[in-house]
Amino acid sequence: MGGDSAGLPPVFHSARRDGERIIVAFDRPNGLCSRDGKALTDFELAGGDGVFHPASAMIAAGEIRVVSPAVSKPTAVRFGWNKLAVPDLVNRLGVPAAKFRIELKEFAE
Predict the structure, then answer these.
(1) Number of domains comprising the chain
(2) Burial tier of 33 (Cβ tally within 10 Å: 0-12, 13-18, 19+)
(3) pLDDT bucket at 108, cuts 50 / 70 / 90
(4) 88 or 109: whose pLDDT is higher?
(5) Range of the domain at 48
(6) Within a domain: residue 1?
(7) Under a CB-based contact definition with an 8 Å cutoff, are residues 77 and 45 in contact?
(8) Using one digit for the tens of pLDDT, what is the confidence trace for 53-94?
(9) What is the 3-state secondary structure (H, E, C) of the chain?
(10) What burial letters (b/e) apply to 96-109, b meaning 16+ CB within 10 Å?
(11) Within-domain flag for 2
(12) pLDDT single digits (tens) 21-56
């Protein structure tokens, strides 16, 4: 299949822990950005207790870096998981990123 994939949503590809944050990569990122130019919304992190906390997220080098002051050793990350969420992470054409939840088994306590 040829053509530009920018009309397709960015979807979760992988996540890795880097100290107190989780770095998330997407398939078809196509210029990830915030729809409104403000801080990204609807990211959450959990530690070994499995309790999710609001997290801040920023785009760096085409990946999303997610951190929460309430979680020092994150083991899971989710995006847009609340049924009322209206996430603002989109690609360059405004196509919203797909929601996801992932546990990093190698860091489970």
Answers:
(1) 1
(2) middle
(3) low
(4) 88
(5) 12-107
(6) no
(7) yes
(8) 999 999 999 999 999 999 999 999 999 999 898 899 999 999
(9) CCCCCCCCCCEEEEEEEECCEEEEEEECCCCCEECCCCCCCCEEEECCCCCEEEEEEEEECCEEEEEECCECCCCEEEECCCCCCCCCEECCCCCECCCEEEECHHHCC
(10) ebbbbeeeeeeeee
(11) no
(12) 999 999 999 899 999 999 999 999 999 999 999 999
Q: Whole-angstrom Cα distance, residue 18 to residue 85?
A: 26
Q: Is 34 exposed, middle or buried (0-12, 13-18, 19+ CB in 10 A)?
A: middle
Which residues are bridge partners to 34 per DSSP? 89
Tell if the pTM clears 0.85, that is, is over it: yes
Task: Tell me how far apart the alpha carbons of residues 66 and 43 are, in angstroms, rounded to a whole number.
Answer: 7
Q: Is residue 7 part of a domain?
A: no
- Looking up tokens 């920018």, which residue turns up? 6
